């Protein structure tokens, strides 16, 4: 499924096929997290997860029936609840895809609200470049003379920068801005 999605997203970027090089950029390493959000006695004073975008190319998220995930609308800036739909995944674009696509795809800012009456579990699968990959706007994207707006960065440096600081919305992407 991930491969199909990436092939489809790649077509829009002039990437004809997911050869070995592209495979290591788009899906060279996978990380699975298990998130547990216990009932919170003070949900109004607490965040579940602060606002951030994922450093992945794609995130495939399985959430339970409780809800609480919000994504930020690019057009209005409003937070939009992502209601759980049984048997479905939430698919999010991450920062690596934004950088590789020279900003054509935008990583989604999201957060999780604390819940005063239910425990919640979520399982994100982060589909990432290989740690040692150098990521920057793909040659297929800039071939038409489009100015790159991101520089080349080693993916593990990008991830290290993300984890060094508190969640701060979409600011991590600035690390790769020219
Ligand atoms: O729990 C969720 O729905 C999302 C968690 C999340 O954003 C993350 O682990 O990066
Ligand atoms: Fe996330």
From TrEMBL:
InterPro entries: IPNS-like_FE2OG_OXY, IPNS-like_sf, Iron_ascorbate_oxido_reductase, Oxoglu/Fe-dep_dioxygenase_dom
Pfam families given in the database record: 2OG-FeII_Oxy
Fe2OG dioxygenase domain segment(s): 21-129
Protein name, as recorded: Fe2OG dioxygenase domain-containing protein
Taxonomic classification: Eukaryota, Viridiplantae, Streptophyta, Embryophyta, Tracheophyta
